[in-house]
Amino acid sequence: MSVPTKTQDSLKELSDYKFGFKTDSKAVYKSPKGLSETVVREISKQKNEPEWMLEYRLKALEIFNKKPMPTWGGNLGEINFDNIHYYLRPQDREKTNWDDVPDEIKDTFEKLGIPEAERKFLAGSGAQFESEVVYHSLHKDLADKGVIFESTDLALQKYPELFRQYFGRVIPAHDNKFSALNSAVWSGGSFIYVPKGVDVGLPLQAYFRINAENMGQFERTLIIVDEGANLHYIEGCTAPSYSTESLHSAVVEIIVKKGGRCQYSTIQNWSHNIYNLVTKRAFAYEDAEMFWLDCNIGSRLTMKYPAVYLLGRGAKGEIQSLAFSGKDQHQDAGAKVIHAAPDTTSKIISKSISKNGGRGTYRGLVKVNKGAVRVKSHVACDALLLDEQSRSDTYPTNQIEESNVSVAHEATVAKIGQEQLFYLMSRGLSEEEAASTIVNGFAKPIIKQFPMEYALELNRLLELEMTGSVG
Amino acid sequence: MDKLIETDSIPKTLKIAENQQFIGVFNALADSEITINKDSDSTIIAVLNAGWQGKKTITFNFTGENSTLNFIAIIIGKDSDSFDFETISNHQVAHTKGRYNIRSAMFEQSKIDYKGNLIIGKGGQQTDSYLAHHSLMMSPDATTDTKPSLEIEASDVKAGHAATIGNIDEDMLFYLESRGLTQTQSQELMVKGFLTQDLTQTNNPDLEKSLTETISHYLHARR
């Protein structure tokens, strides 16, 4: 079969990885390679932090050094912690006016379409380059209503009490090895506070860019949605393609109070040299609702299991995810829900597509604590395997300690059906177009949950990743 | 039928020969290796009325093409009995079929900890494998811990699993009671129906009848 011109074009585009360009940017400060007490002290000093934060970091470093590497999940054996820069400061201080951002960094984000997106449909946005947030903005009417949207570093300076009240409460440093690492060297990320009853109508967005080689990005995000408030937060991320590995290890803590709602949407499109080891967890109180929408397309290895702890009666948790694993990629993703209160409900939908030797893994937990009566939970995992080199795993765990519950889990793994292909081809589609159509149909229930602009981009990305493949 | 074994415990090793039609019914589990050769058709049923200490692992190795396995486990948990076991299915050759149906009714402080892993290797094209664990929570002090897993490296397969955990439908219970059955009778009837559902798959009415009677007897003895 001859390759259509359109496909040749998109193949070329794919081999470039649209976001693979790098920027020549001079760092204001770059910590030497490797992790030590000196490095941690220097980060804290550079940020002019209060004493308690330095102590917190040092204690976390101690925990990180003590904890063994996880032996489950993906292959972490090749991460060389001594070959990573843990802190890289790209400019002197954060800007709120786009024009003040250094040109070469501005160019990077212009190419990624960030300022354009903000103008069009966002209530505010932040941009992180290497270790620091270089730019932040929020619509004035939201600021007037008391909404706080800052870089986490700046929030520590500006709102020390609010910050200390919530920081590290959802994910303590000792939670796991990588939350300890993040707690020791965290830098950047978003701090959001939505006051009682405030509905942030349009989404807030943060964009994360790793530019340097052998770089570690450790953003720390803390979101508090107060009673009856509503927030939609979107994060996106990309990096240039290097031959050596970089590490991204974020911690995201979310608290949704009584009757509040929070949606956290991720489009993860790191280049294929990034280890993406992230801890994300939300506490949802009475009648609150937490929704993680998680889309993993990039990275070499992702280990990420967004969690919801349902702590108040009637709380609701939902996690929907889509993972695409191509050549040399392993997406070890999933979801965790802990039902710790009566009348709580949860829904998990996970879809994965593996091709070209990629490996997609679903790893999940549904736990119903004793006393959490009338719990309802439903989990559905679907995997699509596109060739014989690829692999798909499903590892769900259901722990139920209460009788008056309804918990269901289902999973299927399949390939593209010959009948489906045949049908579409009889309608005039090429084999490639038919396969691509089926994959898009498979992914659509997740993709359509994103705002339209992102959904279009995701569809395009999937189409690109699919070219040259036939089920 | 070639062979029908009824012993206390599943044997440590079991070889299903070429072309064999096998049915085995067991009352206890053991660490066990079961080899399934080509063109065979086997049904293995475990009716478990008493718990054990530690964990038992049963491994099913499919070594020949066109073989079918139907594994049924029926568990009645009582007192503080513990049922901790794992099934591992290795589908390494093409054209094999596996059906795994585990049903448990957990009374009092009983606990089930089950892991069911379906492994389909690169050689396992056209495998058709499905595993389901359904657990009834008959007491707020009972525990169900279930981990159905899939590890798949072949592209042309049908594989899936399901798990449900819940309790008896109040409406159905009410219906039975309104027809004059006592609460205990109604419950027993529903649990029996739940536990014996997969036995029709054996296509062996005599066996189905005798096992249903056994289960009925176990449930009755609980009173």
Quick structural overview:
The complex is a heterodimer of chains A (471) and B (223). Chain A is α/β, with parallel strands linked by helices and 471 residues long.
* Mean pLDDT over the full residue set of chain B: 93
Largest sheet of chain B: 7 strands, parallel
Unreliable stretches covering 5 or more consecutive residues of chain B: none
Question: Rounded to an integer, what's the Rg of chain B over CA atoms?
Answer: 18 Å
Work out the helicity level of chain A: 25-40%
Largest interface: A-B, 33 and 33 residues
Largest sheet of chain A: 12 strands, mixed
Sequence stretches where pLDDT stays below 50 over 5 or more residues of chain A:
11-15
Tally of extended strands of chain B? Answer: 13
Tag the structure with descriptive keywords.
heterodimer, A: alpha/beta, 12 helices, 27% helix, B: 223 residues, alpha/beta, 7-stranded parallel β-sheet, 6-stranded parallel β-sheet, 3 helices
